[in-house]
Design goal:
Low-confidence stretches: 38-49, 85-91
Largest sheet: 5 strands, parallel
Number of strands: 31
Shape: globular
Strand content: 25-35%
CATH architecture of the largest domain: 3-Layer(bba) Sandwich
Strand order of the largest sheet: 9-8-7-13-25
Radius of gyration: 23 Å
Helix content: 10-25%
């Protein structure tokens, strides 16, 4: 039997299979709430290269084989998994008009690349507000740590854009979108017409409302210019305070500690990585990081940043005062959605898109950190790269579906083997939790309805690829659950699963 597409009428999730699923993995409704969706399997792109995802950092590589090493985190080809069967690409490009992409990050670049592959006759323009060519933003913390040189950050050389017939305008600030006239305005009075537009404007750092937050030497890390400024300020002996115990905050603190700088990290929650780890995992992570020399202040709220013109100390609600010459804010990001709002597109937290990554305007797509799909803002490299590719293909005339992607997290800089995926905070008693806590490892596996819903690995992450496959395929683990009694037996049993 040929496979079919089924659409959840409640949340829009697309299921591929002969029948509708037993329940929707997104919103949990029953099969009767699914309806047939357009079956585009006969339009599958032939002869396309395979696609590979780094299980450590989610970088996606296009090619028949995985790369010799990941350009983001440096792991070898054995740490890549094939995506060829997971994200089929449908449709061929038919557009011969102008495709304009606003943005200079991975979503924007992936969109331009995909559009060029599938619409050879289209004019493609990439508008980046930054003065540099697109670069590996994820590697900024590795640059801070001194692990890589600045010239290795750039994704493609200048000649590549000419070879691909992609016009790139660096340092171009878009000021407005004229949807009726199908053109965009660029600062200094120029305008650019489009037939299809892709908004991939990314996000900006959230600056908390704290007295003194705008003092000199308080900075965030979002761009290469930010990284260069941090390195300029952080001379030997500079006392650093990092605000935020998420992935970015930890990587910044770890990078500065590797440069032998005194660093204190402040996190409002009682443990590190509250979105990726439970309390026990977060507490275990602190013990693993003690060798770096980073000091941690968890469960602490910042009440003020003091100094004359320049920061000199950070005040906590415990009345403790942290000496600081530089404060780096890593308190999350917020979408750059102002262009979409000004143009009248539907915007919630981000620019609202459907499963084709189309906005409320049929000629405008959105991808990456700025795009909100089924209420979700992903905010990580892997989904941004995948969304960019799908948006580019669809802007070129394809009909490709983005059905979501499991969230996973790992750390690159601080030398800790950590992997987290899916739901790691059980909501109620309908979840089954298996845990192992030893000197070498901390592991937690969460199941619901016999399927893996989430997992935490601290220590050995050798089954990370298998965990992703189990979650994304909704594979039944009933036989495994019938035999396993704890996290160690779950870990070992997953190796034996087909």
């Amino acid at each position: 039997m040929m496979r079919s597409n089924w659409r959840c009428t409640v949340c829009g999730y697309i299921h591929v299979g002969q029948e509708a699923p037993d329940c929707c993995p997104v919103c949990g409704v029953t099969p009767d709430m699914f309806e047939p969706a357009p079956d585009v399997s006969d339009m599958m792109r032939k002869g396309s290269p395979a696609r590979w995802r780094c299980i450590n950092c989610d970088y996606i590589h296009n090619g028949k084989e995985p790369p010799p090493s990941c350009p983001i985190c440096g792991v070898g080809p054995e740490q890549f998994e094939s995506l060829e069967e997971k994200h089929d690409v449908y449709g061929s490009g038919t557009l011969n008009g102008n495709i304009v992409v606003i943005g200079g990050g991975i979503a924007a670049l992936s969109a331009a690349e995909a559009a060029r592959r599938h619409a050879p006759g289209a004019g493609i323009t990439l508008l980046s507000q930054e003065p540099r060519l697109p670069y590996y933003r994820l590697n900024l913390t590795r640059y801070l740590a001194g692990e890589i040189a600045p010239d290795s950050l750039q994704i493609h050389p200048d000649s590549w854009y000419a070879e691909q017939n992609i016009k790139i305008m660096a340092g171009a600030q878009v000021t407005s979108i004229d949807r009726a006239g199908k053109s965009i305005a660029i600062k200094k009075g120029t305008s650019l017409p489009y037939d299809r537009l892709i908004i991939a404007t990314g996000a900006h750092s959230v600056i908390p409302s704290v007295p003194g937050i705008y003092r000199k030497n308080v900075i965030s890390l979002r761009s290469m210019l930010d990284a260069e400024e941090i390195l300029r300020l952080c001379t030997p002996g500079t006392r650093c305070v990092v605000i935020g115990g998420g992935v970015l905050g930890l990587e910044i603190a770890g990078a500065l500690a590797l440069r032998k700088l005194p660093v204190t990290l402040v996190e409002g929650y009682d443990w590190l990585l509250p979105r990726q780890l439970n309390r026990k995992g977060g507490e275990r992570l602190i013990s693993r990081l003690s060798h770096l020399g980073v000091h941690f202040a968890c469960g602490a709220k910042i009440t003020g940043i003091e100094g004359d013109e320049q920061v000199s100390r950070v005040l906590l609600d415990s009345a403790e005062s942290l000496p600081a010459d530089v404060v780096i804010v890593a308190a999350g990001v917020r979408c750059n959605s102002y262009l979409a709002r000004l143009s009248g597109l539907e915007v919630n937290q981000g620019v609202v898109v459907d499963q084709y990554l189309c906005t409320s305007d049929p000629d405008i797509y959105a991808a990456g950190d700025v795009a909100e799909f089924q209420g979700v803002l992903y905010g990580t490299w892997g989904p941004a790269q995948l969304q960019g590719e799908i948006a580019g293909l669809n802007a070129a005339g394809g009909e490709n579906i983005f059905a979501g992607i499991s969230r996973s997290n790992s750390l690159k800089v601080i030398g800790v083997d950590l992997f987290s995926i899916g739901a790691i905070h059980p909501e109620d008693a309908s979840y089954s939790v298996f845990e192992e806590d030893s000197d070498e490892h901390y592991r937690q596996f969460i199941f619901r309805d016999s399927s893996l819903a989430g997992a935490i690995l601290l220590g050995d992450i050798s089954i990370a690829s298998q965990l992703k496959k189990l979650i994304e395929s909704r594979t039944s683990c009933a036989s495994l659950l019938a035999k396993a009694k704890n996290g160690r037996e779950i870990f070992e049993g997953i190796f034996e699963m087909p």
